[in-house]
Amino acid sequence: MLTSKLFIQNLQAGVKPATGCTEPIAVAFAAANCRVHLDEGEIEKIEVLVSSNVMKNAMAVMVPGIGEPGLQIAAATGALAGDATAGLDVIANIATDKIPLIKTLAYSGKVTAKIAPVEDDLYVEVGIQTATSDVRVYIAGSHTNIYRLEKDGQRVIDHERPASHAVSDLKNGMQQVTFQQVWDFAMQAPLESIAFMQEADILNMTLAEAGLANDYGLKLGQSLLKNAANPLGQGPADLQDNIMAYTAAASDARMGGAPLPAMSNSGSGNQGITATVPVSVVARHVEATDEQLIRAQTLSHLTAIYVHAFLPVLSAFCATDSAGMGAAAGICYLLGHDYDTACMAIKNMAGDAPGMICDGAGCSCAMKVATSTSSMYRSVNLAIQGIVIPATNGLVCESIDDTIHGIGILGTKGLKAADPAVLEVMMAK
C-alpha cells in the first residue's frame, strides 16, 4: 500500500504538462512571480542568474509563441505575459499583441543573463526593478520551487534553501524500490487510480502531429516519413519508422517553439515525449484497449522516473535514453511479453548508448530523441527473441536494478567533467 502511494505521488509530481523547454520556462516562471509583486511602472532592469546546466539548456531552444531563443527572451516573456499561477505552463497563453513588447524589452539592453557562482544542478535567480520597487525570486532543486522571494530587501517567501545536490523525499523513495515493484504496480493498480496517465498520450501525440504538419526545428520527424524523397529510404514506413518519426516530430515541435504543452517526465519535456510517443504509436499499431494504453503509459513513465531517480535533475547524461528504457518496458507489455523480457530490453539499452551526452537543449534534441528511440526499438527486438547483452559487458549487470543503479553512477559521477567542457565550447561561440 505504501509503495502504491509512493508511485502515484511520483507520477503526479513527475508527469506534468509543460509548454516549452523547462529550463527557460523556469526563468519565465521566476520572472512572472517577480512581476506579481512589483509596483506598477515600466521595467527598468531584469537580471537573470542561473546554474551552468540551466544556461546550457536555454541558449539555443526556442521560447514557445515567440519563435526566438535565449534567457533574455524567456525572462521578458515571463515578466510581460506570464501566468505566475500556471507552473510549467507559465507562458502557455501569450497574447499576440504582447510579442513585439517582449522582443523590444529582451533586446533593449535592460535584460542580462549570466552563470551564477553556485554548485546546484538547477538554480534560477531573477531580479526585476521598476522606478519604485525591486523584486527578486530564487529557485533551486526543481523548476518551480521558489524558496525565497524578496521585495525591496524584505523576504516575502522564506523557505530553507535546498542543498546543492539535494534528493527529494519522492526521489529518495524511488531509490528504495525495485523494477519488479514498478512492473507489478503498473499491471495491478486500480485503473481509476492511474487513468490520468492517458493525458500523456493525448498531449504528446498532439505535439507529434503538430511536428509532422508544420516546419518546426530540424523537421526530423517529417524527414523520417519522406522515404520517397530520401535516397536511403525504401518503400513505405514501417513500425520502427513511425515510432521514430512521431517521437522526433514531437521533439521538433517542442524545441521549435510550438505553443503546445508536452507531458513532461522528471522535469523534461523531451523525456516525457520519449516515454510517451513510442508507446502510443505501438498501442495504435496493436489496437490496444484504453486500459492497456493506460497501463503501458504508467509502466513507461514510472520506469523512466525510477531510472532517473539515480541521476541528477540536470546532468551531462542525455536522459531521453533513460526515458526510452521506460518506453521499452511499456512496449514489451503491449506486445504481450513479460517482466523478464522488459528486463532484457532495458539491459540491452544500457549496453547500447548510456554515454549519450547532453550538449544543451535545442533543435538537435530531436536527433537524440530519435537515437534513444532507435536504441529502444532494437533493444526490444532483441529481447523478444530472448537475446540480452551478457553481464560481462560494461554497465550491464545480472540484476536489472544493479544495471539501473550503474547508469546512475555514470550520470552522477562519471560525466561530471563533461558539462563544463560542453559549456566552454558553447559560451565561446
Structural features, described:
With 429 residues, the chain is of the alpha+beta class. It has helices at 2-14, 22-37, 52-58, 71-81, 99-106, 169-174, 179-188, 191-194, 198-213, 220-225, 239-255, 269-285, 290-308, 320-334, 339-350, 365-383, 400-414, 418-428, and strands spanning 17-18, 45-50, 111-115, 123-129, 134-140, 146-151, 154-158, 262-263. Strands 3-2-4-5-6-7 form a six-stranded mixed β-sheet. Strands 1-8 form a two-stranded antiparallel ribbon. A hairpin with a 2-residue loop joins β6 and β7. α4 crosses α5 (99-106). The relative contact order is 0.12. Mean pLDDT is 91; it is low at 228-236. Belongs to the UPF0597 family. It comes from Latilactobacillus fuchuensis. Residues 186-423 form the Serine dehydratase-like alpha subunit domain. This is UPF0597 protein LFUMFP_100015.
